[in-house]
Design a protein that fits this description.
This protein has six helices and no strands. By secondary structure, the chain is mainly alpha-helical.
Amino acid sequence: MTDIVRDADFAIVLESRLNEARICDRNGAYTSAIIMLGSLLEGVLLDAVKARMPNSGKPLDKWTLHELIETAHREEWIQADVRGFAGKLREYRNLVHPNAQVKIGHAPDRDTVSMCWPVINAALNDLAATAM
C-alpha cells in the first residue's frame, strides 16, 4: 500500500481496510467485504487526487467515489476496464445503505465478492503504473 499511497498514516488506514475485507470475505460477511473494498478504492483514488492534483479546487471531503473514478480515468491514472468495473463495485459498495440492497433484490455472496477483488487489484496496478 505504501508504494501507491503517499500519506503514510492514510496508507495504514487503507491497509487495515484491505485486511478487514479479507477477514469479512473469509468469514462469509460478503456485504461487509464489498463495503470495505469500495472504501479502499475510494481511499486510494482520494490519495491519488491529493498527490496528483493538489490544486483541484475541491476539498477532499467533497469528492464522491463516482467523481474519483471518473477523474482517475480522465487523467489516465486508471484504464477504461477499471473505470467500468469500479463503477459496478461502487454500486455494490452503496449496499451500506439497506434500501440499496432492497432495490437490487439480492444479497451479495461469495461470487459477488470474488468479482470485486480483481477490480481492486487492477486499480492498484494502474495507480502504481502511473505514479509520478
